[in-house]
Amino acid sequence: MPAADRLAVGVDIGGTKTAAGLVSESGGVLARREAPTPAAGGPDAVLATAIRLAAEIIAASADPVSAVGIGAAGVIDPRHRAVLSATDTLPGWAGTRIGERVEAVLGLPVAVDNDVRAHAVGETRFGAGRGRSSALVIAAGTGVGGALILDGHPQQGATGIAGHFGHIPSADAQGLLCTCGRSGHLEMIAAGPAVLAAYHRAGGAGEADDTRAVFALAADGDPVAEAAIRTAGRALGRAIGGLVNALDPEIVIVAGGLAHTSALWWDPVREGFAEEAIDLVRACPVVPAALSGDAAIIGAAALAFDLVGAAPVAAIAGAGSVPVPPGDSA
């Protein structure tokens, strides 16, 4: 680690797992801890786990820690560092003032944003988008989300919810009811669960309990599985093409579980993009994410460095025994 490199803790709070890492300003993860997210215990238990992991990392660091960055599941208002809304995966999470509560315990400045935007920051500053002034990051997995990054910073929108690309209209999803209550949204045809649903709707005869099984069936030549994957990939590619037409980024980075599949999915993604992208932007590269699962940790830490600017803050004394809110069931 360069002598001038400062340190921050990045925390990634997901519906099933919470991970934290000690991150250098150059993007290196120097230490890492994780634990199951105690979602059933409510917000107190979830925050307790995040605080405990961060406190353990701070206490073990030989050098001062400047700040803490948190990428959290749900719709996050980064200005007020609070959860605007969340799914039933994290019961009671909506309304939680993450930043205030973590800051009060750890005694360090705390930056908070959505986990997908944190992932996008990590990927654009230190991964596939490194050196680019603008990037469109699309996360395609259980859902479809992402972020527009300009000069290394995620665009948040007027209400803090920018990046919900899964809820743009898609002709391929016409008539499919979305989880948001509307119909015809991209997520219902292009997300991982949508691939499985499409396979079953089309009368697929193979045993498929999850999306991975559909990909395995397709690899074995199941035409219904191949069609479900092709439809999902092409729909996402067409959506990316439309977004690139409107936003004109230097690069598109595709992250999430589907981005780590095969040409069965990537080929139709690129075909769909070529169909929709106008000539002036058709050369925009569409590439898979380069970082590992630590992208959100790295990105959250980067947002923490942004928060504190140039002045590092000394690590808190005795962080290993910092009290945490009740309900830590991790």
From TrEMBL:
For this protein, the record's SUPFAM superfamilies field holds:
Actin-like ATPase domain
Task: Give the highest taxon in the source lineage.
Answer: Bacteria
- InterPro entries (UniProt xref): ATPase_NBD, ROK
Gene3D superfamilies attached to this UniProt entry? 3.30.420.40
Pfam families assigned to the protein according to its UniProt record, in alphabetical order? ROK
Record-stated family: Belongs to the ROK (NagC/XylR) family.
Q: What is this protein called?
A: ROK family protein
| Organism whose genome encodes this protein | Microbacterium panaciterrae
Upper lineage is:
Bacteria, Bacillati, Actinomycetota, Actinomycetes, Micrococcales
